[in-house]
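anyone seen this seq b4? input:
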Amino acid sequence: MDRENKCQMPVSVIIPVYNVYDWIDQCMESVVRQTFTDFEVIMINDGSTDGSGKKCWEWRQNDRRISVISKENGGPSSARNCGIRCAKGEFLVFIDPDDWVDDTYLEKLYTAIVESGADIAECDVYKYNNNTGEQTYHVCSGSMGIEYSLEEHMKYGFTAIWKCMIKKSLFTDNGVRFPNCHSEARAVYPLLLALSGKIVNVHEALYYYRRFRPQALSERPRINNGDENAVGLLAFDNLLQNFKTCDLYDKYKPVLQKIVKGKLSDLLAGLFYRREKEEFLQLAKKYYSYIDEKFPGTSNFPYVTFGGYNLNRILSYMDVLHNPYGRFNFSSVISVMNPVAGLQGIHKNKYREIMLRRDIESLFWDIIGDINPKYIFMDFIEERFDIIETAGGYITKSDAFDGADISLAEYRVIKRESPECEKLWEKSFFEFMKRMRESLPSCGVIAVKNLLSTRMGDKNSQTVFADVEAISEKNRILEGYYRFLEENFPEVKVVDCTGDSLYFTDKAYEYGAVPSHLNDLINRRIAEKIEEGM
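predicted toks r here
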């Protein structure tokens, strides 16, 4: 079906459809019951083979606002581009057919964009886990109640296009199209932000993003021209070229460098547990080479993380590529130096299962050999956990261990606060540093002094955690470990921001307001301090 854009209406809703028979009704039900009614829906049946095309026509028969375009399969980009060409609306909305929206989604985005005179309106998102039914709230506009600047939005913003209402002229006047490649949204989202005169944020989660759906592209990513080791790179080629075409490249080059590093890091994080080891390492190598090619002379070194999950969040603000293969979380120095043989563990969270296996098998030194890091970044947050003695070695009794399906024939728990654990830790740490010197004599070691937070809140106010006494007791143990490090290993640089007024847990952090997590403001500040010292 081909239509001329002769008359204009307020909003066009563009929905690319490909083999989503089980999900499309929920999506369309949420669309047709919108409180805002002056819109058209363009469903592009992109060569579906499962009956989705028939469902599109059934919805067309039931609602006059819906039209259907049937085409050969060309991927979501070609479907969206087709929708843009045919859209009559002044503003465009893109909805994926396996997701759904709040009844007020269009009304609130349209009201915000019209009243503000903005080119883009953006809402927050609920991430829906299709396996568990759990929902997490994701803020898209900033962190800790502070909205992103334009450049921060380009760097840190959630690049999904479906949470936005966008003025159609941003596409048509600037020749912006979705490229036919993996990660197509990353190719256009920062450009649209740069082209926009104004962005307005709706501080409500109005879009429900379904994750972990079987056969979804996010679960089985598309291949770029048959080259699995180029995942996402064509998107960034397109992004950089479009900035040049729009005469914006020189203005935004420093930002683009950080965007490419950050979004390639996001891709690596998403592909980490979906790729075999050698395939993943080749992909990471390709990414490092791509950054060197596009931004020669920029900071671009491999590193290994040994510590808590929040340390990953801190380091994510550094201006380098972040390779999750180099992460060693949910572990301790004692287990690293004393492996357990022949033990298996299964966890419903794939990332935690990988980290648990690394702890049980003491794979730290194998990872060191695979990556050959320039730096080791470490903290002692995971050293708060008790230690399990079993099968001739030790395992960290971490959150990952406690949530796993694992059976121990015979074992003994060594309490973290015990003198036995203190002696075992000191002995293991001496051995750890000795092996570090022998294995990587030129590798720098930077310790980030992280403690459990005693407070949670936002930038305006904080409250003390209910179990603050137990937290403080754990922190006394961790403080002793950091003193031991500084007294015995002066070559290790220690970065300490624990006295900062911002050192507290974000009460709205989507993965849990727990003392081992901080907030994005202090995480960014710690990252800046690390880079200053390097």
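The CA atoms of residues 49 and 466 lie 55 Å apart. The two ends are 59 Å apart (CA to CA). kinda curious what u guys think
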